[in-house]
Amino acid sequence: MAQRPNLLSHFQNLVVESQNRAMAQDKYKFVFTANEAASEGVTEPIRLPKLIRKAMSLARGPISKYKIGAVGRASSGRVYLGVNVEFPGLPLHHSIHPEQFLVTNLALNSEKGLRQLAVAISNDCIEFGVPCGNCRQFLLETSNEVDIKILLKSKHEAEGSFGKLKLLLPYRFSPDDVLPKGSPLLLEKRDNCLILSRSAGEICSSDCSHLKCKALAAANNSFSPYTDSPSGVALRDEDGILYRGWYIESVAYSPSLGPVQAALVDFVARSRGKGFDKIVEAVLVEKNNARVSQEATAKMILDTIAAPNCDFKVFHCDVDFQKSILVNSDR
Ligand SMILES: O=c1ccn([C@H]2C[C@H](O)[C@@H](CO)O2)c(=O)[nH]1
Ligand SMILES: [Zn+2]
User: Fold this and answer.
1) pLDDT digits over 202-228, tens only?
2) pLDDT on residue 1
3) Within a domain: 267
4) How many domains does the chain have?
5) CMP/dCMP-type deaminase domain spans which residues (predicted)?
6) Residue whose CA is closest, atom 5 of ligand 1?
7) Residue 280 pLDDT > 50, yes or no?
8) Does the predicted model carry a pTM greater than 0.80?
9) Smallest CA separation from ligand 1 atom 15, residue
């Protein structure tokens, strides 16, 4: 008989432990299926704020101490979180805003469009806001930007309402002003038809875990229609987990997001709270003599934030013209 309470409490401890583990796993979640979002209270777009506290808790703002979160619903019905990310030791323009984070994560997850977006800052209470000018401009690059709706909600309103992005940026310099009609925009399928240059050594044909192959695959998704300088970055952390991201350009140039930042979006979204100093290996793939080269900036960022002995390599790529003719004739 004396054993029983012990057994019971042992069992209870196991249950509590596994519940805690599940909660800890949830804590770092950046992507929710429609069902998962509904179980968090996001049963319809106007309820996106139900996930805003979670988003803000994941912010990485060691310089400003600001915790800014974004919650967005993609056209697939999945719900994504975005956060502000700051890098101590680096110039401030390398920081990532939550809306940029969110759109980059949509691209990394092959989403086709953003539908609704809520943004908030945590002061004493939660205050909903709207994307800054830079992010409004960045959002214009997505293929369905005319469908994007932003939550407009003052402190005194219980629910608020959605307003179109066009309402926030009525006089715009948009991709349509520069790109030929029908050019694929951000979040549309792309293949830059890049292959590693001969100097990059052995090239794998199947899916492998070489960082250079991951970075090449990333560069093939890169959105660089204004300068034709696609690039991709792959990272490895000390536990061997890989992350990748690609350069995303803006027609207004300065809102563009570099390939290291894009890979860091993947890192923040999937590393379960690890610090950037856990990154031990990095590869950048870009064109030789690219009009916009990322090499010096990538090295500078990684030298500042990654593990002190982080190995950084650059491989060059070229366009596979035969493939490019095939891909473009399909369009
Ligand atoms: O509209 C804004 C203004 C600021 N920030 C972030 C950037 C930085 O991390 C911190 C301080 O500006 O807040 C945003 O995300 N959106
Ligand atoms: Zn912004």
Assistant:
1) 667 667 889 999 999 999 999 999 999
2) 45
3) yes
4) 2
5) 43-176, 206-328
6) 97
7) yes
8) yes
9) 97
98 Cα: distance to centroid of ligand 1 (angstroms):
8
Question: Which one of 177, 211, 244 terminates a domain?
Answer: 177
Task: Compute the radius of gyration of the chain from its Cα atoms.
Answer: 21
Alpha carbon distance 120, 126 (integer Å): 7
> Could you say which of 36, 44, 86, 99 is catalytic?
99
| Amino acid 331: pLDDT | 60
Residue 47 CA, ligand 1 centroid: distance in Å:
23
Please tell me the residue having the least CA distance from ligand 1 atom 2. Answer: 132
Going by pLDDT thresholds of 50, 70 and 90, the confidence category of residue 14 is: confident
For a substitution probing ligand 1, which of 58, 63, 65, 66 has the most ligand atoms within 8 Å of its CB? 66
Question: ipTM value of the model?
Answer: 0.99
CATH code for the domain in which residue 258 is found: 3.40.140.10
Does residue 2 sit within a domain?
A: no
* Residue 99 annotated in active site: yes
Residue with tokens 């996001």: 42
Same domain, 32 and 164: yes
Can you tell me the distance from the alpha carbon of 276 to that of 55, in angstroms, rounded to the nearest whole number? 19
Domain ranges, residue 242: 194-330
> Collapsing DSSP states into helix, strand and coil, what is residue 297?
helix
With a pLDDT cut of 70, the percent of the chain lying above it is 93
| Residues 131-147 as b or e (16 or more Cβ within 10 Å = b) | beebbbbbbbbbbbbee
